[in-house]
Amino acid sequence: MLLVLVINGFNFQREDLSIVIKVGIVGFGNVGRGVEQAIAQQPDMELVAIFTRRSPEDVKPYGDVKVDLFSNLHSYVGEIDVLLLCNGSANDLPIQGPEIAKMFCTVDSYDNHGKIFDYFTAMNEVATANGKICIIGTGWDPGLFSINRALFEACLPKGTSTYFYGPGVSQGHSQALRDINGIKNAVQYTMPVTGNLRRIQEGEILELTPRQKYTRDCYVVLEEGANGDEIEALIKKMPNYFEPYDTTVTFISEEELVANHFASPHGGFVIRNGTTGVDSHPQKMEFSLKLKSNPEFTAAVIVAYARAAARMHAGGEVGARTVLDVTATQLSPKTHEELIKELL
Length: 344
Prior knowledge:
By secondary structure, the protein is of the alpha/beta class. 33% of the residues lie in helices and 28% in strands. A 7-stranded parallel sheet has the order 5-4-3-6-7-8-16, with helices on both faces. The chain has a 4-stranded mixed sheet with strand order 10-11-12-13. A 3-stranded antiparallel sheet has the order 9-14-15, with helices on both faces. A hairpin with a 2-residue loop joins β1 and β2 (10-13).
């Protein structure tokens, strides 16, 4: 059966790559900048506009693209196929996501694991009621790590999965710091507990608490007059983000932050140790990332899921989705035939 999709009123076959998916960016921090660059590498996408709560004149895109106020989003209904939401998970997305889903299909990188089901539920309710597709929690964790956790467990049902983050800068946790009143700027490093990581990689089956897997190192620039002791206590008690871990807070100057903490490397591992057969032969599955730029890689994943969102919506689907609901075929710009011939 031939599948025909419709975007912006035009019918096209699934294999027709001439269609251009029109996208917009909400929020232009590190991830938003990465998204702009990632869109430029895609053969079937066009960036319509960047939306910001700042003065548009203060936003400097890499390319020649329109910058408009966030409050003007409603005037772009019908002009944009998918909005890519690049603001923070702690305070922005829980409010912005459902509101925007009333008007647009969206993709975001919501990363608060402890509240992600509640966010999914809220987005699903709004997206379903308004006939939109909203893919949440893309990026690499949640995101690619989530896919591998599910795949590994399915293949090795008898076993234990462990994941480690870092060493590197966490964008979501750094943003959560910057959202605290009294903090001018901040960077947070996630550091794996290397001894336990090595034991897992060597095949030991361990049940580790978050505190036994990694630590969190925060480098914070305070606003003038802010109380460092109060802010440090607030950081260490923040549920989901810092409370479950051994967290250190170091106060530094803006100059030191720029000089020594400007890069954004990151990465991590998903490892499953298990056994197969009646003889319980040990087996290990491992997926790892080593990223020079965490925000740029996260942005690249978000943009790939924009293609899936456009295709799913054009095929008549509505509601919220996660990375676990999207196929590789929906992500790729290649035709189904090309994927079978080249990658299967």
